[in-house]
Amino acid sequence: MTKFSLFLAAALGLSALATAPAADARVSPQPTGVIGVDTSQLTPDYWVDRQRQADRVVLDRGQIALQNRKLQETDPSMHDIENLPAELDAERVRDWIEGLSRRPERTLYDVRGKQVPSKSIDDIVAATNLKAIPKTQPTRYGLVVHRAALRTFPTDLRVFSRAGETDIDRFQESAMFPGTPVAIVHESKDGNWLFVVGNRYAAWIEKQYVAAGSKTQVFGYTRKVPYLVVTGAHVRTTFTPDLPAVSNLQLDMGIRLPVLKDWPGTESVNGQAAYTSHVVELPVRNDDGSLRIVPALLPRTADVSADYLPLTRANVIRQAFKFLGERYGWGHSYDTRDCSGFVSEVYRSFGVQLPRNTSAQSISPALNRLAFEPGDSRDKRMDAAKDLQVGDLVYIPGHVMMVIGHDNGTPYVIHDTNGGSWLDEDGKLVSGHLNGVSVTPLTPMRFNASQTYVDRMTNIQRIRP
User: How far apart are CA 116 and CA 126, in angstroms?
Assistant: First the structure.
């Protein structure tokens, strides 16, 4: 090697050292500002690597099917809509609607912070059109064709408990997703809303998002094989101007999609060759409100699986972390999700069904429940916290968290939260304003200045044999 070559190599080496970040700087964990959490703990592998037998199957397909059947048969929050009678009487329909759409007693505020007038509330209640419920009606079915809000009343008016707080809309209940089967049981006075009953929830939905079909057509769609399962936080169908109803459609984790595996690759779907995509089937609503099933393209790069994922500790952690940082959405607002929706959709990617709300999840007889009474000692609660396992669901009033493991003897959780508080070094309560899917230790988290989350635990549900 010439002197010039040696000089050049040395110069290049010095340049690389000068411009490249130090190895320690690249890998060294950094504080996050959240108690007990550094950046290394914000990756799924950190928690997977701490598990023994991380890939061992916790529940196999048969066990999951048995648990789902038990949930349907024993949990009062669930609705077996496929086995509804051929005709519905008025009392049953009225019970569904009045069980949800009760006139609010509290003062409510609109998005501008103005009090919602009593007359407006009266009009919203009247829109439920209860007097129009027929004495009997044929049981009608449909499929949801687009992710859509489920509402307490047939209105898109957003209302809040306090002026200036506009995240938690008190008329927002949940959401339904494309391909969800429903029983259509009533219509609002203006004809723009339907009251529907799904397996997990009964509420008002905009009529434009439901396509009515025969019972055979609706439930035949849900059983079609082969199928794909959405395993990403969400995926989107390919954009197409040819059929806007299935263009850029959001499909959330756990949704099952019939797939047309034998579709010729060179044959187009909605104006595009299919060979770079999965050809899936989706429901759409005809102009007359009837159901039609159409092909649509889902990119091969989409995070999907040919079946439900195996239920393992590693997969639970990895699926949960796909939502990390997503904004909190009360009742599935903002096209995101809330705490119970988050854990439901993680488990849905394994084929495991859960009730929709924390109140029902926490006491479901279909799961392995450890219940706490208000008088239970802190020692009993701390012993339970020490024994928590990956995938366990920990409930406090109005909130659920999913366990991802222990670090230095402390249990850690991932949860979709609009709050999050702890004590600082001076013993003062710090509000973290997490407002999204977050990783935190369990034991330091505070319900208020005097009580921790552990003090307030009501139940632990374990998805186990």
Answer: 16
d(CA 139, CA 81): 10
- Given this model, what pLDDT does residue 198 score? 98
Closest Cα partner for 70 from 333, 367, 318? 367
pLDDT at 265: 84
In the prediction, which pLDDT does 166 show?
A: 93
Question: Do 323 and 339 belong to one domain?
Answer: yes
3-state secondary structure of 411: strand
Q: Domains in the chain: how many in total?
A: 2
Task: Tell me the pLDDT of the chain averaged across its residues.
Answer: 94
Q: Describe the chain by its helix, strand, coil percentages, rounded to 5.
A: 25, 30, 45
Amino acid at 15: S
Spatial distance between the Cα atoms of 127 and 241, rounded to a whole number of angstroms: 35
Q: How far, in Å, CA of 258 to CA of 177, rounded?
A: 15
Distance, in Å, from the CA atom of 316 to the CA atom of 390, rounded to the nearest integer, reads 8
Check: CB of residue 72 under 8 Å from CB of residue 78: yes
What is the arithmetic mean of pLDDT over 8-29? 47
- Angle separating helix axes 339-348 and 313-321, nearest 10 degrees: 130
Nearest Cα neighbor of 434 from 425, 446, 449, 451 is 446
Identify the band that residue 65 occupies on the pLDDT scale cut at 50, 70 and 90. very high
Whether 161 is in a domain gets the answer: no
Q: Is residue 182 one of the residues assigned to a domain?
A: no
Question: pLDDT tens digits for 158-185?
Answer: 999 999 999 999 999 999 999 999 999 9
CATH code where residue 406 lies = 3.90.1720.10
Q: Confirm if 169 and 117 have CB atoms less than 8 A apart.
A: no
**CA-to-CA distance for 84 and 88, rounded, in angstroms?**
8
CA distance 220 to 156: 32
Q: How far apart are CA 258 and CA 251, in angstroms?
A: 13
Looking at residue 465, its pLDDT comes to: 84
pLDDT class for 21, splitting at 50, 70, 90? very low
Segments forming the whole domain that contains residue 335: 39-62+310-462
Give strand pairing partners of 353: none
The continuous run of DSSP H or E covering 100 comes out as helix 90-100
At 194 the pLDDT is 98
Per-residue model confidence (pLDDT) at position 32: 96
Which pair of tokens denotes residue 35? 């108690």
